[in-house]
Design goal:
39% strand, elongated, disordered N terminus, mainly beta, seven-stranded antiparallel β-sheet, 720 residues
C-alpha cells in the first residue's frame, strides 16, 4: 500500500510556473524556488510492466512534501545519492526486496535527460554519518524527452535486490542531452548525511553546500526514493521476469542472420518463453519464440552446459532498409511477463566487404591484385590499407588472480576459496573482464578504473564486476550477466568503451580482433570446466593443419598458457588441457575513440569492373605477416570492413598448375580450381600464384579455359 506520506506528496505538492530561462552550466550561483501548483507526473523509464501489485509495494521515503527546486544545478555526468531506511515508512520491512528507484526533477524548458539508477550498501565507517558504499546493482542508461513540468522518473532495477537494513539509492545523469534545463527537488527538512552529489570531485553532502558565504543552497533532502516488497515475498524465490536485451545493443546497424539474445536479469528460474517481435510501421510483428532458457555457466569449476540462453536467429534479408524497434517479451510459468526493447537500423545488403584476393592465410609474392566483393548496391568506394604485424604478437594483458574476488569475510588476502564459504573459485568471468579493463587503464584510459578521485585496486575492481555479474547468486557467470555486467561497469565509468560480441566466432575473426582491430579479447570456453580466458597474443601463421597458436591468461593460473585453435564443423575450437573444446562466445573491449595505425594503399571509386586495386608488394619484408584491411562506404554513409592476414614469402616453390599441391598436374587440379572459383571450394594450399594459370594477374574463367586447353587440347603449359 502507498504510505500516507507518499499520498501527501502526490496530493499536496504544487508547481510554480516560470518563464523558461537559459541555464548556466555551473554550480556557483543556483536559485532556490518554492513549488506550488499541481501534482507531479510519474514517468516510467525502462520496462512498463509493474514489478509488484500495489498491495505488495511499499515506498521508502521518510521526508516531507516536495517543496523546493534548485537550478541551475544539474550539469550532467554526475551522481546523486540518497539514504534509505525502509523501517521509517514500511512496517516490518525486512527482508526488503528493492524493485524500483524514483528520482524527482522539475523541467523549466523542454529537455532531454539521460538517467540510470543504482543501489549501494551503507558505509558506516564514520559513526553517525552514513555514506554511499559498495554498489549492489545498477541499470542501463535510459533517455527521456521531457516537456516543462514536475516529474517523478521511475526506473525498475534489472535485478531486484534484497536487503536487511538501510541502503543508498543513486541516480546517474548522463553527459548527453540538455540536463541543465532541469532542477533537482527537495523537501523542507534540513538533514546531513542523507543526500549526496558527485560532479567529479567525490561525494559532497548537499546539506553543507553554500552559495557565497552565508546562504544555504539545499534547504532540504533530495527527492530520491525507492519502492519494493517488505517482509519478504514469493518473488524472493521466483521474482518477476526482468527482460534485457544482450544483443543487439541500441543503434546497431544489422544485416544478414541476426543473433537476437535476451536474458532474464531477475534470475526467476521459472522462465517459460521469450517472444521476439519487430516494429517498423507502428505494428508489432512476430519474429519467433525460444522456449529454452539454458544459458551457459562459466565458473572454472563445473561444466558450462551446452545451451545458448533465450535467443533466436533472425534472417532479415527480405526486410526494407530502415530504422526498427525490437522487443522481447519474457514470460514465466506463473503468467508474469516483462518486456525489453531496443532501437536498431537494418540494412539487408550492408556495405560489408569480403576479401577474395588475397584470401586469409595466403602466401603472396608479387602480382596479387586486391579484390573484394560486396552485396551493397550503393557502394561509393572501397579503401585498402596495410598493417604489418609481428610473427610473435603480444598484447601485454596484466594478470589478475580470480581469487581476489568473491570475498565474504573482509579478508581478501586469504584466497576467498569456496571451501571457506567464499566465492573466489567461481570468479573466472570477473577476473577475465578485470584484466581487459586494467589493460586499457595501462594504455592511458584511466576513467575505466577511476571513481571520483580514487583509482580502483584490483580487489575493488573485482568486487564491482563480481556484483554486476551476479557471481554469488549463480556460483559463476552466465554469458548474459557477463556481458551486461561489463557493459554496465563501463557505462558508469564514463561510457568510453564499446563491447563487441560474437557468438559464432571463427579462427580468422579471433585473429583479426586480437591483432588487427586491437581489441582486448575475452573468450568463453565450453566443456568441463567452462571458463573465461583473456587473450594475450598469437604466434606465426597457421600451421599445416590450419590451426592457429594463441596465448591467453587463465584467471585460475599464475601465468600465460599457449594453445591451438581451429575451425571444425562450423565452430571455433580451442585445445585446452589437451582436449578440443568449443569457443562459444568472443567479446572485444575497445575505446570508442581508438584508432588503429595502418598504411593507406589506395581506394577504388568505380565498381564497374569489380572492387579492387593493383598494389606494389615490392616494399614488403620477406617472411613477414601483414593484414590487408578493406573498408566500404555506401551512399547512406554506412560503413563496413574486413581484414585478411597474409604472409609475404617469395622463397616458396610450387609446380605451375599444381592447384591442390599434391605434386601432380592433372584433372583433379582443374576440378579444384573450378570449385574454388564457382562453388566456394577451399583456397589453393600453395597460394595465389599457382592458380594464375595464364599469368594475367587475375583469377577468373580465362584460367579455367587455359588450363583445360593445356590438359586436353595440347595448349600451352601453365606459366611459371
Amino acid at each position: 500500500m502507498q504510505t500516507a506520506v507518499m499520498r501527501c506528496i502526490l496530493i499536496f505538492i504544487a508547481l510554480l510556473f516560470f518563464t523558461p530561462v537559459i541555464l548556466a552550466k555551473d554550480k556557483t550561483s543556483p536559485r532556490v524556488e518554492k513549488i506550488n501548483g499541481s501534482q507531479p507526473i510519474r514517468l516510467n523509464l525502462g520496462s512498463d510492466s509493474p514489478r509488484l501489485s500495489v498491495e505488495d509495494t511499499c515506498t521508502v521515503y521518510h521526508g516531507g512534501e516536495i517543496t523546493y527546486f534548485i537550478y541551475p544545478w544539474i550539469e550532467g555526468d554526475e551522481l546523486f545519492k540518497a539514504y534509505q531506511d525502509p523501517e521509517a515508512s514500511c512496517p516490518n520491512p525486512y527482508p526488503f526486496t528493492i524493485y524500483e528507484v524514483i528520482f524527482g526533477v522539475y523541467v523549466l524548458s523542454p529537455a532531454v535527460i539521460q538517467l540510470s539508477v543504482d543501489v549501494e550498501e551503507v558505509d558506516n565507517s564514520d559513526p553517525g554519518c552514513p555514506y554511499p558504499g559498495a554498489m549492489l546493482t545498477m541499470t542501463p542508461l535510459y533517455e527521456a524527452s521531457l516537456d516543462t513540468g514536475l516529474y517523478l522518473l521511475a526506473i525498475p532495477l534489472d535485478t531486484p535486490i534484497i536487503v536487511n537494513g538501510p541502503y543508498f539509492v543513486g541516480a546517474y545523469i548522463g553527459p548527453e542531452g540538455t540536463p541543465s534545463y532541469a532542477g533537482v527537488l527537495t523537501d523542507n527538512i534540513s538533514a546531513g548525511c542523507v543526500s549526496y552529489n558527485d560532479w567529479g570531485n567525490g561525494y559532497v553532502d548537499l546539506d553543507t553546500v553554500y552559495s557565497g558565504d552565508t546562504l544555504k543552497v539545499f534547504p532540504g533532502r533530495l527527492i530520491l526514493l525507492s519502492s519494493g516488497s517488505p517482509g519478504g515475498s514469493s518473488s524472493e524465490t521466483h521474482p518477476v521476469p526482468a527482460a534485457r536485451f544482450i544483443h543487439p545493443s541500441g543503434g546497431e546497424l544489422l544485416s544478414g542472420n541476426i543473433d537476437l539474445w535476451v536474458n532474464d536479469a531477475a534470475g526467476s528460474g521459472i522462465i517459460d518463453r521469450a517472444q521476439f517481435q519487430y516494429n517498423r510501421t507502428g505494428s508489432w510483428i512476430d519474429i519467433g519464440y525460444d522456449f529454452t532458457d539454458d544459458p551457459p555457466l562459466r565458473n572454472g569449476v563445473t561444466g558450462s552446459g551446452s545451451g545458448d540462453g533465450l535467443s533466436f536467429a533472425w534472417d532479415i534479408s527480405g526486410l526494407p532498409e530502415d530504422s526498427y524497434q525490437l522487443r522481447a517479451i519474457v514470460s514465466d510459468t506463473l503468467g508474469r511477463a516483462d518486456t525489453g526493447t531496443v532501437s536498431v537500423n537494418i540494412d539487408p545488403t550492408p556495405p560489408t566487404p569480403i576479401i577474395v584476393q588475397p584470401y586469409f592465410g595466403q602466401n603472396v609474392c608479387g602480382g596479387s591484385p586486391l579484390q573484394v566483393t560486396c552485396t551493397d548496391e550503393d557502394v561509393m568506394y572501397v579503401s585498402f590499407d596495410l598493417k604489418e604485424t609481428p610473427q610473435d604478437f603480444s598484447v601485454a594483458i596484466p594478470v589478475i588472480d580470480q581469487q581476489l574476488g568473491g570475498d565474504v569475510n573482509d579478508l581478501p588476502g586469504d584466497g576467498n576459496s569456496s571451501a571457506g564459504g567464499e566465492f573466489g573459485d567461481y570468479c573466472s568471468g570477473p577476473a577475465a573482464a578485470a584484466m581487459a579493463a586494467r589493460y586499457w587503464y595501462n594504455r592511458g584510459y584511466t576513467d575505466i578504473l577511476t571513481e571520483g578521485a580514487v583509482v580502483l585496486t584490483d580487489i575493488q575492481l573485482m568486487d564491482r564486476l563480481f556484483t554486476g555479474m551476479q557471481v554469488e547468486t549463480n556460483l559463476g557467470t552466465f554469458d548474459g550477466e557477463f556481458v551486461s555486467g561489463l557493459r554496465d561497469y563501463c557505462l558508469i565509468h564514463n561510457d568510453d568503451f564499446n563491447l563487441n560480441i560474437d557468438r559464432s566466432p571463427s579462427a580468422s575473426q579471433l585473429r583479426c580482433w586480437v591483432q588487427d582491430y586491437e581489441y582486448a579479447v575475452m573468450i568463453g570456453l565450453s566443456g568441463d570446466p567452462g571458463l573465461w580466458l583473456t587473450i594475450n597474443g598469437s604466434s606465426g601463421p597457421a600451421n599445416d593443419d590450419d590451426q592457429h597458436t594463441f596465448r591467453a591468461i587463465d584467471p585460475s593460473l599464475p601465468g600465460e598458457i599457449e594453445f591451438l585453435v581451429r575451425d571444425e564443423s562450423g565452430t571455433l575450437q580451442a585445445n585446452y588441457n589437451s582436449s578440443w573444446v568449443e569457443v562459444d562466445i568472443m567479446l572485444g573491449l575497445i575505446p570508442k575513440n581508438w584508432m588503429v595505425t595502418r598504411a593507406a594503399l589506395g581506394f577504388d571509386q568505380n565498381g564497374g569492373d569489380g572492387w579492387g586495386l593493383d598494389w606494389d608488394e615490392s616494399t614488403l619484408a620477406e617472411d613477414s605477416l601483414y593484414f590487408i584491411y578493406a573498408g566500404v562506404v555506401d551512399q547512406l554513409g554506412h560503413t563496413g570492413f574486413a581484414s585478411a592476414l597474409i604472409e609475404y614469402d617469395c622463397q616458396m616453390t610450387f609446380i605451375p598448375g599444381d592447384v591442390n599441391n599434391d605434386g601432380l598436374v592433372n584433372l583433379s587440379d582443374l576440378i579444384y580450381l573450378t570449385s574454388y572459383l564457382y562453388s566456394s571450394g577451399p583456397p589453393p594450399p600453395a597460394g595465389y600464384d599457382v592458380i594464375d594459370i595464364n599469368c594475367d594477374s587475375t583469377i577468373d574463367l580465362a584460367d579455367v579455359i587455359y588450363f583445360y586447353r593445356f590438359l586436353f587440347l595440347s595448349g600451352p603449359s601453365p606459366c611459371p
